[in-house]
């Protein structure tokens, strides 16, 4: 260590004060927003609450959940995935309620061998029933830098976004008899775990434990939603840091429809609504409506 000159020191002090104010205004803090739910020391909050890492070794993965439960909202997190050989691992970011007839909205990142692409797996469960998978490739390498993954959940629709580009929309089609998640508050969950029995190429490629621990990084977690008041069915104040309530009615505009067409044309690798072998009696009703 060497002493800083006083002008350098005061510059650094000012710089870090300004930087921390900007961060406080633009994103939550993991200490305030989440609780660990498994994995002991494999869960770490760093940089004063701005960065969170999860790791996975042969004994266990790790995970966390939001302190609050939400009934609708917009949920964003930035993620940097496991580089190199991540085969067999699954990184998640999802919303879920509790109980047997639960609702769930999933983003899952299925690892792969070195140099092979990740798969983004999405699903929607309503009242305990899922089976609505769509899978995508990405148009960038998700392991070299942070990218933003978002879920918009409002009474009309669910939108999955990657770097603010919509990749999937699940519309509320209750009028056609399709259950829609709208009565059960959900928490945000994130985790890293081993699923080498199925995750990579149908389970043929196993996790290489000589590379453990595997680590993923999360930052800029932002839950802008309607916070459920414990013990009541009502939902209280929305996030006080932000008065951006656009999520409440967010849909796709012309630009959004162009972008989702581009993603679904070039990067969608699986859609349950195209998988006739799974539905010999006919496709589920939600597959028949308009796509976006
Ligand atoms: C891994 O990469 C191979 C080759 O591109 C691909 O066929 C496979 O679907 C990928 N698996 C996952 C889980 O992404």
UniProtKB/TrEMBL annotation:
Name the UniProt record assigns to this protein: Xyloglucan endotransglucosylase/hydrolase
EC numbers on record: 2.4.1.207
Keyword Nucleus on entry: no
Family annotation (Pfam families): Glyco_hydro_16 (PF00722), XET_C (PF06955)
One of the record's GO cellular component terms: apoplast
Functional note: Catalyzes xyloglucan endohydrolysis (XEH) and/or endotransglycosylation (XET). Cleaves and religates xyloglucan polymers, an essential constituent of the primary cell wall, and thereby participates in cell wall construction of growing tissues.
Domain GH16 residues, every copy: 24-218
Family in the record: Belongs to the glycosyl hydrolase 16 family. XTH group 1 subfamily.
UniProt keywords, alphabetically: Apoplast, Cell wall, Cell wall biogenesis/degradation, Disulfide bond, Glycoprotein, Glycosidase, Hydrolase, Secreted, Signal, Transferase
Residues listed as glycosylation sites in the UniProt record: 112
UniProt KW Transferase keyword: yes
PTM summary: Contains at least one intrachain disulfide bond essential for its enzymatic activity.
GO biological process: cell wall biogenesis; cell wall organization; xyloglucan metabolic process
Leader sequence segment: 1-27
Top EC class of this enzyme: transferase
Subcellular location: Secreted, Cell wall; Secreted, Extracellular space, Apoplast
PROSITE patterns, A to Z: GH16_1, GH16_2
Record InterPro entries: Beta-glucanase-like, Beta-glucanase/XTH, Beta_glucanase, ConA-like_dom_sf, GH16_AS, XET_C, XTH
Gene Ontology molecular functions: hydrolase activity, hydrolyzing O-glycosyl compounds; xyloglucan:xyloglucosyl transferase activity
Active site positions: 104, 108
Gene3D superfamilies on file: 2.60.120.200
Gene: LOC113688015
Predominant location category: secreted
């Amino acid at each position: 260590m060497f002493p800083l000159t006083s002008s350098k020191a005061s510059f650094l002090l000012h710089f870090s004060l300004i930087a921390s104010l900007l961060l406080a205004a633009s994103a939550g803090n993991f200490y305030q927003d989440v609780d660990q739910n498994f994995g002991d020391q494999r869960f770490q909050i760093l940089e004063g609450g701005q960065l969170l890492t999860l790791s996975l070794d042969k004994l266990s993965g790790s995970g966390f959940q939001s302190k609050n439960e939400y009934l609708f909202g917009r949920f964003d997190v930035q993620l940097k995935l496991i580089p190199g050989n991540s085969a067999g691992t699954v990184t998640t970011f999802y919303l879920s309620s509790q109980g047997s007839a639960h609702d769930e909205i999933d983003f899952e990142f299925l690892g792969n061998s070195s140099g092979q692409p990740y798969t983004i797996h999405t699903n929607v469960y309503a009242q305990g029933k899922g089976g609505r998978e769509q899978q995508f490739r990405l148009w960038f390498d998700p392991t070299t830098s942070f990218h933003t993954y978002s879920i918009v959940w409002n009474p009309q629709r669910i939108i999955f976004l990657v770097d603010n580009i919509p990749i999937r929309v699940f519309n509320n089609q209750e009028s056609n008899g399709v259950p829609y998640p709208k009565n059960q508050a959900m928490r945000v969950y994130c985790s890293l775990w081993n699923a080498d029995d199925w995750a990579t190429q149908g389970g043929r490629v196993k996790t290489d434990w000589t590379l453990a621990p595997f680590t993923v990084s999360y930052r800029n977690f932002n839950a802008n939603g309607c916070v459920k008041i414990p013990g009541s069915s009502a939902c209280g104040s929305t996030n006080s840091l932000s008065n951006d309530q656009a999520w409440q009615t967010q849909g796709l505009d012309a630009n959004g429809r162009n972008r989702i067409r581009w993603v679904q044309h070039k990067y969608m690798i699986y859609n349950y609504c195209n998988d006739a072998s799974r539905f010999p009696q006919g496709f589920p009703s939600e597959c028949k409506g308009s796509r976006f």
